[in-house]
Design brief:
It contains 5 helices and 6 strands, in the order αβββαβαββαα. It is of the alpha+beta class. 29% of the residues are buried.
Amino acid sequence: MATYDDARRIALSLPEVVETTRWNNRTWAVAGKGFAWERPLAKADIKRYGDETPPGGPLLAVSVNDLEEKDAILAANEPTFFTIPHFNGYPAVLIQLDHVDEGRLEDAITDAWLAKAPRALADHWSAEQGFRSS
């Protein structure tokens, strides 16, 4: 079970990340591009669930490379990763923090950072870590 504090620690451990506030929620950005942010469900989001119970607990949104990657993540049917109609056509997924382990959260945040970081920075960091960025 992870928390916003875990997400914050992981995000700030990556190069050139700044913490800011967007839409009244903490957001972590690299080169001015947000890649992870607190994303509680809005009233309109909850209303769309109708009689279904919406996902509970703290939610974190993370960017992905593109809609194909988003579809692949969602197709894996990990119950901690989901989307909402507000994110249709947008390359990001939501994570239920109280259902994800810290290792999987770290992977998701790192992948989000790689999706938004300037290519030279991502390539340099990836080489230091011993793997190639996409």
